[in-house]
Amino acid sequence: MTITQILKQFDKASLTTISKLTIRELEEEKKGHWVAYVDEGNESYDVHVKFLGKQVDFTSCDCGVQEDQLCAHKTKMLLMLDDKLKGKKVVDKPVAKKTLSKKKVSESEILLRASDQEIVYEWLIKTFASNKVLEQDFILSFSAPECKEYTVNDVVSIVKTIASSSFKVKRNADANTVKEFIRLLNLAIEPIEKFTVFNITKPLALDIYLCIIEEVLTLKRGVKTTSTRLNTFVEKLIEKYALSLLNVNDKDAVNRSISSLFKKIKDENNYERCGFLLLILQSIYKLSDSDIKYYCAEESILLVKKLDKHRGPFYSVILFLLNVVLENKVFNQCYNDFICHSFDNETTITLLKELVPIDVTFVIDKCELLINTNNKLESTQEYRKILISIYEERNDVEKLVKLKKESFLVDFKYDDYIYILENTHEKTEWNKFRYKAYDKMKYKKYTHTVFYQIMCHENNIKKMLEYIVSTYQVIVCQYKEILYNYNPAEFLIKVFRLGQYSHYDEEDNIDLANYIASKYSKDAIFKVYKDYKSYSSSCLNKLIVELAENK
């Protein structure tokens, strides 16, 4: 549903109450993914809203409400986003104007100044024993900075200590707990990062960054939370390593570090660790200049020769290597070292597309093999598209018809249907395909734009009327004249059957309602309405009846 459709579920009084809640730090963390804090009384809740186009795809709130339910905090954020996305000016947190006054000394500050130092010392010792987060904060804030070297074991111990003090034995963590953990972790690794920057071209620096990434992501798997801050922390940490390395003036040292990273990937047997190394390599490549990118391409040529391409951990690595050599135009030097793998569609599809001008016969044979050994049309559609592009170049009609028949049952393209119609000369064969196509489309609402195009092209108005009740109002509106002229009485009944409910995936079509109200008498409309009354306060039927009453 869109934001507007969701908010329609609430009455005005509820929305007025909800709008009084305070929202803070509203930001678009990723494209279409918004996060914010919503305050209610003394509590603060971490709220996420994700869009897919204009549709609200996902919402979450750490108040405990389920993903598919709405709470006041989610609704407040939707209200704010509704205004923001419409271009209205929004304010995260209104601040009341106050007259300046002298700073008020708190009661705790007065007591602290008046208390004996030994008593305060004893109290802090007891408090630290029961509050490990406060103890870690104290240690990190007041310990004297050390100029020391760090080992991987040192860093692992530091991260584990902070995690233990922040999460204890919790399996669930709210946004504030995660936020506090990240704050403490950033304090703790600040001196470590200074150490690694000075040693960034040494293998130890990579090992230290890698162990922090592993510890944080292992923690993320063990703690249930809606917060995205752990992922964001890791992304920023990887970027810091990449930028620190690329800022080194000694390009030979940088190249040696990159070569070492490629070697680590080759030798790594652990799937997860291989993935972390790849993330680091991808970040370095993304941020590097053309010279470093070309060096990565040369390393990719060497690595792809040595990798065991049948091992799962390397599938994503091979795709990265393929994209690197393609971008740097050195694919011709190593294309024989890449293999097509039925379990790695993305790499295989990319590889076959690039091999068309080099060895088209191999591409045709491989695509046909992959299609024939997989009975799921959807899984092999991209291979079919490669073959279609080849046979279109050759104008091989017979093979194109065969491929487009299969392709149509996945993509449902109108032009493919017409091509098949115009080039299938055997009537029995055509009827068999047409029956299968109709049977597939009538149950898939998302295909109905094409379905109605086809039925209209074939002048199959009877079928168009039949499927009105299971299609979109906008499609009915598009063909309203044809449907009305074919059978006015049946058209009115079908429209009222369609319009009994409000549909989550579309708004009521005012043009269709106006058309019905203008074409039929008030008596005719109310006669049909008796049999197909509205089942929601706002639906197409209600709209039609209101327009008819005002005639």
UniProtKB/TrEMBL annotation:
The protein, known as: SWIM-type domain-containing protein
Give the organism, scientific name. Answer: Myroides marinus
